[in-house]
Amino acid sequence: MSQETTFRTRYAETDQMGVIYHANYFTWFEIGRTDFFRKMGMTYRSLEDENILLPVIDVGCKYIIAAKYDDEITVKTKLTKLKGVKLQFEYEVYRKADDVLLAKGYTMHAFVNKELKPVNFRKSYKAVWDMLSENIE
């Protein structure tokens, strides 16, 4: 399952050159990931209520073309790996007006509890694990 999220860039996201500051792409990845979970009928809050956190343990982004102020952006998010205590999402960022790929990246997360100890998510939350497994691309 690929989840698409669309929004308009804000002036506060730009740098002195008038382009979107590079770190904002990671925030956009989070927006896409949050919507991915919502599409599956769950939220980060519901996971946290179950004592599950998903810290980022690895991240990367390849910038292709700069996004600019007031561009309408589409972030395509997909779950690409689910193994052990880890899961990975991949993202593609497009300018909606001309469907040009601006950036692509990934985030790797670990399933941990509030004490930051790894959680055997497959065993403890089998129904959610199975739902995630069905949505790997």
Explain what the structure shows.
With 137 residues, this protein is of the alpha+beta class. It has one domain (2-133): Hotdog Thioesterase (Thiol Ester Dehydrase, Chain A, Roll). A 5-stranded antiparallel beta sheet has the order 1-3-4-5-2, covered by helices on one side. A hairpin with a 4-residue loop joins strand 4 and strand 5 (100-110). It is 25% helix and 35% strand. The protein is built from 4 helices and 5 strands.
**For the record, what is the CATH homologous superfamily label?**
Hotdog Thioesterase
Largest sheet: 5 strands, antiparallel
Average pLDDT, all residues: 95
Structural class of the secondary structure composition? alpha+beta
Strand content: 35-45%
- According to CATH, what is the topology? Thiol Ester Dehydrase, Chain A
What general form does the structure show? elongated
Number of domains: 1
Number of helices: 4
Rg (C-alpha, Å): 16 Å
Extended strand count: 5
Poorly predicted tracts of residues: none
Biggest sheet strand line-up? 1-3-4-5-2
Distance N terminus to C terminus?
Answer: 6 Å
- Tell me which CATH architecture applies here: Roll
Essential attributes:
137 residues, alpha+beta, five-stranded antiparallel beta sheet, 5 strands, 25% helix, elongated
Task: Please render the helix and strand layout as text.
Blueprint: E1 2-8, H1 24-39, H2 44-49, E2 56-63, E3 72-83, E4 86-95, E5 100-110, H3 121-124, H4 126-133
Antiparallel strand pairs: 1-3, 2-5, 3-4, 4-5
